Amino acid sequence: MENTTLTEIVQRQLKSIPKIRSYTCIFLKNKNDYKQHGTGVFVKIESKYFLFTAAHVLDDIEDIFIPLNKGADLLRPGGEIITNHPTTRRENDELDLGILILDELSIQDISNHYSFLESEDIQINHNPSNFLNYLIFGYPSTWSKKSITKKSFHTRPFIHQTKCIKKEDYTKYNRKEFLNLIVEYDRQNTINLKSQSLSFGPNLFGISGCGLWYLNPMDLASNPKLIGIMNEWSIENRNKLFATRIDAYTEMLRNNKIITFTESSLFGFK
Q1: pTM exceeds 0.90
Q2: Share of the chain above pLDDT 90, in %
Q3: What is the CA radius of gyration of the chain?
Protein backbone atom coordinates (compact mmCIF):
# COMPACT_ATOMS: atom_id res chain seq x y z
CA MET A 1 0.00 0.00 0.00
CA GLU A 2 2.95 2.30 0.60
CA ASN A 3 3.43 2.55 -3.19
CA THR A 4 -0.11 3.77 -3.67
CA THR A 5 -0.70 7.42 -2.89
CA LEU A 6 -3.92 8.86 -1.58
CA THR A 7 -4.10 11.05 -4.69
CA GLU A 8 -4.09 7.97 -6.92
CA ILE A 9 -6.89 6.41 -4.91
CA VAL A 10 -8.99 9.59 -5.07
CA GLN A 11 -8.46 9.85 -8.83
CA ARG A 12 -9.58 6.24 -9.31
CA GLN A 13 -12.61 6.77 -7.07
CA LEU A 14 -13.64 9.84 -9.06
CA LYS A 15 -13.30 7.92 -12.34
CA SER A 16 -15.56 5.19 -10.95
CA ILE A 17 -18.39 7.55 -10.00
CA PRO A 18 -20.26 7.46 -13.38
CA LYS A 19 -20.37 3.66 -13.19
CA ILE A 20 -21.54 3.65 -9.57
CA ARG A 21 -24.14 6.29 -10.43
CA SER A 22 -25.54 4.03 -13.17
CA TYR A 23 -26.30 1.35 -10.55
CA THR A 24 -27.87 3.73 -8.04
CA CYS A 25 -31.45 5.04 -7.94
CA ILE A 26 -33.50 7.19 -5.63
CA PHE A 27 -36.96 6.54 -4.24
CA LEU A 28 -39.63 9.20 -4.16
CA LYS A 29 -42.57 9.10 -1.79
CA ASN A 30 -45.77 10.99 -2.60
CA LYS A 31 -46.54 11.66 -6.26
CA ASN A 32 -47.55 15.25 -5.65
CA ASP A 33 -44.53 16.78 -3.93
CA TYR A 34 -41.81 14.27 -4.90
CA LYS A 35 -40.57 13.71 -1.34
CA GLN A 36 -37.17 11.98 -1.53
CA HIS A 37 -37.41 8.79 0.55
CA GLY A 38 -34.33 6.64 0.08
CA THR A 39 -31.71 5.15 -2.22
CA GLY A 40 -31.18 1.73 -3.82
CA VAL A 41 -28.62 -0.28 -5.82
CA PHE A 42 -29.46 -2.44 -8.86
CA VAL A 43 -27.72 -5.81 -8.85
CA LYS A 44 -27.72 -8.86 -11.10
CA ILE A 45 -26.72 -12.23 -9.65
CA GLU A 46 -26.87 -15.21 -11.98
CA SER A 47 -30.13 -14.79 -13.93
CA LYS A 48 -31.93 -12.74 -11.26
CA TYR A 49 -32.29 -8.96 -11.06
CA PHE A 50 -32.51 -7.23 -7.69
CA LEU A 51 -32.86 -3.87 -6.04
CA PHE A 52 -30.90 -3.78 -2.77
CA THR A 53 -31.84 -1.16 -0.20
CA ALA A 54 -32.68 -0.81 3.50
CA ALA A 55 -35.73 -2.56 4.93
CA HIS A 56 -37.12 0.65 6.39
CA VAL A 57 -37.19 2.09 2.86
CA LEU A 58 -39.22 -0.85 1.54
CA ASP A 59 -41.61 -0.65 4.50
CA ASP A 60 -43.36 2.03 2.39
CA ILE A 61 -43.21 0.13 -0.91
CA GLU A 62 -46.84 0.93 -1.80
CA ASP A 63 -46.08 4.65 -1.74
CA ILE A 64 -42.67 4.87 -3.41
CA PHE A 65 -41.57 5.47 -7.00
CA ILE A 66 -38.34 5.63 -8.97
CA PRO A 67 -38.07 8.80 -11.12
CA LEU A 68 -37.13 8.32 -14.78
CA ASN A 69 -36.33 11.00 -17.34
CA LYS A 70 -35.57 13.59 -14.62
CA GLY A 71 -38.88 12.88 -12.94
CA ALA A 72 -41.04 13.22 -16.04
CA ASP A 73 -41.97 9.56 -15.53
CA LEU A 74 -42.39 7.67 -12.28
CA LEU A 75 -41.90 3.92 -12.01
CA ARG A 76 -43.47 1.93 -9.22
CA PRO A 77 -41.11 -1.07 -9.06
CA GLY A 78 -42.75 -4.46 -8.79
CA GLY A 79 -41.64 -7.87 -7.66
CA GLU A 80 -41.15 -10.00 -4.58
CA ILE A 81 -40.00 -8.28 -1.40
CA ILE A 82 -37.64 -9.83 1.14
CA THR A 83 -36.97 -8.00 4.39
CA ASN A 84 -35.84 -9.09 7.82
CA HIS A 85 -38.21 -8.87 10.76
CA PRO A 86 -36.56 -7.16 13.74
CA THR A 87 -37.25 -8.39 17.26
CA THR A 88 -37.70 -4.79 18.43
CA ARG A 89 -38.51 -1.54 16.62
CA ARG A 90 -37.18 -0.99 13.11
CA GLU A 91 -35.25 2.02 14.46
CA ASN A 92 -33.10 -0.40 16.47
CA ASP A 93 -32.66 -2.90 13.66
CA GLU A 94 -28.95 -3.62 13.11
CA LEU A 95 -29.70 -5.70 9.99
CA ASP A 96 -32.30 -3.52 8.22
CA LEU A 97 -32.08 -5.60 5.05
CA GLY A 98 -34.35 -4.92 2.08
CA ILE A 99 -34.39 -6.74 -1.26
CA LEU A 100 -36.79 -6.39 -4.16
CA ILE A 101 -36.64 -9.26 -6.66
CA LEU A 102 -37.67 -7.29 -9.71
CA ASP A 103 -40.40 -8.51 -12.05
CA GLU A 104 -39.98 -8.57 -15.83
CA LEU A 105 -41.80 -5.30 -16.52
CA SER A 106 -39.69 -3.44 -13.96
CA ILE A 107 -36.48 -4.94 -15.35
CA GLN A 108 -37.33 -3.72 -18.84
CA ASP A 109 -38.10 -0.16 -17.71
CA ILE A 110 -35.09 0.05 -15.41
CA SER A 111 -32.68 -1.32 -18.03
CA ASN A 112 -33.47 1.64 -20.27
CA HIS A 113 -32.18 4.06 -17.64
CA TYR A 114 -29.84 2.19 -15.30
CA SER A 115 -27.24 -0.58 -15.27
CA PHE A 116 -27.14 -3.68 -13.08
CA LEU A 117 -24.03 -4.41 -11.04
CA GLU A 118 -22.62 -7.81 -11.99
CA SER A 119 -21.93 -10.38 -9.28
CA GLU A 120 -18.14 -10.28 -9.82
CA ASP A 121 -18.18 -6.75 -8.42
CA ILE A 122 -19.78 -7.88 -5.16
CA GLN A 123 -17.25 -8.63 -2.44
CA ILE A 124 -18.19 -10.84 0.48
CA ASN A 125 -15.92 -11.69 3.44
CA HIS A 126 -14.44 -8.20 3.32
CA ASN A 127 -11.73 -7.45 5.87
CA PRO A 128 -12.22 -3.77 6.77
CA SER A 129 -9.28 -1.39 6.90
CA ASN A 130 -8.70 1.95 8.57
CA PHE A 131 -7.63 3.58 5.31
CA LEU A 132 -9.41 6.01 2.95
CA ASN A 133 -10.22 3.51 0.22
CA TYR A 134 -14.01 3.39 0.69
CA LEU A 135 -16.67 5.39 -1.10
CA ILE A 136 -20.31 6.16 -0.27
CA PHE A 137 -22.63 7.23 -3.08
CA GLY A 138 -26.21 8.16 -2.22
CA TYR A 139 -28.87 10.83 -2.53
CA PRO A 140 -29.68 13.04 0.50
CA SER A 141 -33.18 14.48 0.75
CA THR A 142 -31.81 17.98 1.27
CA TRP A 143 -30.05 17.86 -2.10
CA SER A 144 -33.14 16.79 -4.03
CA LYS A 145 -35.99 18.95 -5.27
CA LYS A 146 -38.81 19.17 -7.79
CA SER A 147 -38.83 22.01 -10.31
CA ILE A 148 -42.40 23.21 -10.73
CA THR A 149 -41.63 25.36 -13.78
CA LYS A 150 -39.56 22.71 -15.57
CA LYS A 151 -41.79 19.87 -14.37
CA SER A 152 -38.72 17.83 -13.55
CA PHE A 153 -36.87 16.36 -10.58
CA HIS A 154 -33.28 17.23 -9.76
CA THR A 155 -30.92 15.65 -7.27
CA ARG A 156 -27.25 15.94 -6.40
CA PRO A 157 -25.40 12.87 -5.11
CA PHE A 158 -23.54 12.67 -1.85
CA ILE A 159 -20.07 11.24 -2.53
CA HIS A 160 -17.86 10.60 0.45
CA GLN A 161 -14.42 9.06 0.71
CA THR A 162 -14.17 7.29 4.03
CA LYS A 163 -12.55 4.55 6.10
CA CYS A 164 -13.76 1.82 8.44
CA ILE A 165 -13.36 2.12 12.18
CA LYS A 166 -11.21 -0.38 14.06
CA LYS A 167 -12.75 -3.78 14.78
CA GLU A 168 -12.31 -3.44 18.52
CA ASP A 169 -14.50 -0.30 18.52
CA TYR A 170 -17.65 -1.97 17.15
CA THR A 171 -18.94 -2.84 20.62
CA LYS A 172 -19.06 0.89 21.46
CA TYR A 173 -21.87 1.25 18.93
CA ASN A 174 -23.68 -2.03 19.71
CA ARG A 175 -22.80 -3.46 16.32
CA LYS A 176 -21.33 -6.80 15.27
CA GLU A 177 -18.27 -6.70 13.01
CA PHE A 178 -19.32 -9.86 11.14
CA LEU A 179 -22.70 -8.28 10.27
CA ASN A 180 -22.06 -4.55 10.02
CA LEU A 181 -19.52 -2.10 8.68
CA ILE A 182 -19.04 1.24 10.44
CA VAL A 183 -17.36 4.10 8.59
CA GLU A 184 -16.40 7.68 9.38
CA TYR A 185 -18.38 10.74 8.28
CA ASP A 186 -16.02 13.67 8.07
CA ARG A 187 -18.63 16.33 7.39
CA GLN A 188 -16.02 19.05 6.96
CA ASN A 189 -14.48 17.28 3.96
CA THR A 190 -17.09 16.04 1.51
CA ILE A 191 -16.43 15.77 -2.23
CA ASN A 192 -18.14 18.52 -4.24
CA LEU A 193 -18.11 17.51 -7.90
CA LYS A 194 -19.38 20.88 -9.07
CA SER A 195 -16.49 22.85 -7.56
CA GLN A 196 -13.99 19.97 -7.74
CA SER A 197 -13.15 20.57 -4.10
CA LEU A 198 -13.98 19.50 -0.56
CA SER A 199 -16.84 21.24 1.22
CA PHE A 200 -19.20 20.93 4.19
CA GLY A 201 -21.39 17.84 3.89
CA PRO A 202 -25.20 17.59 4.01
CA ASN A 203 -27.77 16.20 6.36
CA LEU A 204 -27.76 12.55 5.29
CA PHE A 205 -31.40 11.55 5.59
CA GLY A 206 -32.36 9.91 2.30
CA ILE A 207 -29.14 7.98 1.62
CA SER A 208 -30.45 4.85 3.36
CA GLY A 209 -30.11 1.95 0.95
CA CYS A 210 -27.13 3.32 -0.98
CA GLY A 211 -23.92 1.39 -1.55
CA LEU A 212 -20.67 1.26 0.39
CA TRP A 213 -17.90 0.63 -2.14
CA TYR A 214 -14.35 -0.60 -1.66
CA LEU A 215 -11.40 0.19 -3.90
CA ASN A 216 -8.46 -2.17 -3.56
CA PRO A 217 -5.37 0.09 -3.18
CA MET A 218 -3.19 -2.75 -4.48
CA ASP A 219 -5.22 -3.06 -7.68
CA LEU A 220 -6.45 0.35 -8.82
CA ALA A 221 -7.27 -1.02 -12.26
CA SER A 222 -10.09 -3.14 -10.83
CA ASN A 223 -13.66 -1.95 -10.39
CA PRO A 224 -14.87 -0.77 -6.98
CA LYS A 225 -16.59 -3.61 -5.11
CA LEU A 226 -19.95 -3.38 -3.37
CA ILE A 227 -19.37 -4.47 0.22
CA GLY A 228 -22.35 -3.04 2.09
CA ILE A 229 -25.65 -1.17 2.06
CA MET A 230 -25.88 1.97 4.20
CA ASN A 231 -28.77 2.15 6.65
CA GLU A 232 -28.15 4.46 9.59
CA TRP A 233 -26.85 7.87 10.58
CA SER A 234 -27.65 7.88 14.26
CA ILE A 235 -28.45 10.95 16.32
CA GLU A 236 -25.98 9.85 19.00
CA ASN A 237 -23.07 9.34 16.59
CA ARG A 238 -23.14 11.97 13.86
CA ASN A 239 -19.56 11.26 12.76
CA LYS A 240 -20.27 7.57 12.13
CA LEU A 241 -22.32 5.83 9.42
CA PHE A 242 -23.58 2.27 9.64
CA ALA A 243 -23.97 -0.34 6.90
CA THR A 244 -25.10 -3.94 6.65
CA ARG A 245 -22.53 -6.17 5.01
CA ILE A 246 -23.42 -7.34 1.51
CA ASP A 247 -22.90 -10.89 2.83
CA ALA A 248 -26.25 -10.60 4.62
CA TYR A 249 -27.97 -9.92 1.30
CA THR A 250 -26.34 -12.78 -0.57
CA GLU A 251 -26.89 -15.18 2.33
CA MET A 252 -30.57 -14.21 2.58
CA LEU A 253 -31.00 -14.97 -1.12
CA ARG A 254 -29.04 -18.22 -0.82
CA ASN A 255 -31.10 -19.29 2.16
CA ASN A 256 -34.28 -18.72 0.16
CA LYS A 257 -32.77 -20.77 -2.70
CA ILE A 258 -33.05 -17.83 -5.09
CA ILE A 259 -29.34 -17.85 -5.99
CA THR A 260 -26.43 -20.28 -5.61
CA PHE A 261 -23.84 -17.59 -4.92
CA THR A 262 -20.66 -18.33 -2.97
CA GLU A 263 -21.37 -18.82 0.72
CA SER A 264 -20.05 -16.18 3.10
CA SER A 265 -17.60 -17.43 5.70
CA LEU A 266 -18.66 -14.73 8.17
CA PHE A 267 -22.08 -16.09 9.07
CA GLY A 268 -25.08 -17.87 7.59
CA PHE A 269 -28.83 -17.93 7.95
CA LYS A 270 -29.77 -21.35 9.35
Answers
A1: yes
A2: 60
A3: 18
